[in-house]
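User: I'm writing a tutorial on reading structure tokens. Could you give me a worked example: one chain, its sequence, then its tokens, then a sentence or two explaining what the tokens reveal?
Assistant: Sure. Here is the example chain.
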Amino acid sequence: MALKVSDIGEKELINYILSKSSDIIPDDTAITKFSDTNLISTCDMLIASKHFPREMSYFQMGFKAVTVNVSDLAAMGANPIGFLLSIALPKDLEVNDFKKIIEGVVNACDYYKIPLIGGDTNEASEIIISGTALGVCDNPLMKDTSKVGDLICITGDIGLAALGFNLKEDNIYTKKALEPLARLKEGIIINNAGATSSTDITDGLASELYEMKPDSLGFMIYEEKIGISDEFKVISSELGLNYLDLILHVGEDFELLFTIDKDNDLDIDYIVIGEVNDSDRIQITLSNGEVRKIENRGYNHYVS
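And here are its predicted structure tokens:
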């Protein structure tokens, strides 16, 4: 039987592409030498049936299409310079709904101060929005460049979106799921403060930790430091969900996960969740003191 893409998943497909080009940098974005700085470029495609919950409005779809791309710029510590929008639409989509999508895109571009500079349109059986975000950065942050003793940090609470996808009523969890925001300003600040590595949390904390792990080094994070509220645990239990699974393996938070030296002058709110060590393992210390290996599992196109 022929091997199918669902047998290997998105990350293996990406690895195959990387193996065919020595010019691609395996990080959140492409990095191209540009005058006396670096051009930072990224693209992300969103498909209605895969990425937009039924509760998401057309405005929210447009806004999210910008957010997911800008979030990659944030992870590199880049300043945005332009956004390209390609959108495919069903023929029977109402024009007013199309206008709401574009309103969301334009509002997001205004919010992130990234100008909409071009794009393309086409026809499809469902809504498909593909964005390309461009930025510049003298010293872009990479994923796997942390060192022993660094703090492991996040720019805000995680797991809220994962829980929100399972709820119907309006609350902080559904808002995080339907209206995510990229941490663009924070990315620039942590880069200027000397962060040693960074990525954005889209596929789950566990998956991103494995993406960030340097050879021979390890990570230890602590459940108690993540700051999981009692309410979060109660709602998860009522829904029959494991709260740690939501925190570690779902994603869509768009918070930044970064490492930085203990002696830093970082001037933003952030949460220290662990530290880099030389264990060559990725582990979590649970609230009861048990140390457990973190499974390398997160959202994976074609498989999840």
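What the tokens reveal: The first strand starts at residue 30 and ends at 34. The chain has a mean pLDDT of 94.
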